[in-house]
Amino acid sequence: MDTPEDSFDFTPDMIEIPEIFRNSLDKKPFERCISCDKYLLEDGTPYVIEKTIRNYKEHNVSDVIFEYAICMNCMANMRQAMSKESLEKMEQYFMSQVDPLERQLQLLNNETLNIEPWISHCMIKGTAREALDEYQICCQCDGKNIVFTIMPYMVGGQAMEEMAELLSAKSRGEIDDFMDNNFGLPPELEKELGDFKYVLI
Fold first, then answer.
1. What is the pTM of this model?
2. Does residue 113 contact residue 18 with C-beta atoms inside 8 Å?
């Protein structure tokens, strides 16, 4: 999907990256791009953080399945490797479900720079985070700060599955290769995830 700068003009608000978007192991900000190892924490360095999280509702706990930061250049390269048809279908799906500008203005007006309302419900389906089995959260950053645009947002498992169905075999292969090259999930975790499909959001 296009970054917010491609969609409309705005003056972004920023705060220090909150804990939920930091490395889950050491609670520190991500320092390096997962693809090119570029240092990310200098001012003026734009990048995206994505996390996929699974809820274990019977135990009232959640676990980070994988997480990473990726610079905008590498994100653009990955998008270019995907099929044009897949990108267009995902863009159409997204824009049919969400009004980016209305969402940004509403959240900034109601809860200025409070991260929780932005990721408390699936941006597409409206499902509360605690009611989901899996979900992805995503934010845009600049150096040591998170930037409030259309991001941050959360997308639940149902919406992710619907988006995954829009991908061509070529695009699905590119995403699967990205996952295998960077994470190499062990067989027991792949079995646990079942048919869950990660989507580059």
1. 0.82
2. no
Say if residue 168's pLDDT is above 80: yes
Give the amino acid at 8.
F
- In the three-class reduction of DSSP (H, G, I as helix; E, B as strand; rest coil), residue 61 is classed as strand
Break the chain into its structural domains and give their ranges.
4-187
Q: What is the pLDDT of residues 25-62, one digit of tens each?
A: 999 999 999 999 999 999 999 999 999 999 887 878 88
Question: Contact 43/142 with Cβ under 8 angstroms?
Answer: yes
Beta bridge partners of 140: 48, 147
* H or E element, residue 178: helix 169-182
- Please give the Cα distance from 67 to 123 (Å, whole number): 19
**83 CB-near residues (< 8 Å, 6+ apart):** 168, 170, 171
Residue found by looking up tokens 């409309």 in the block: 8
Distances from the Cα of 63 to the Cαs of 21, 66, 114, 127, 132, in angstroms? 14, 9, 23, 19, 13
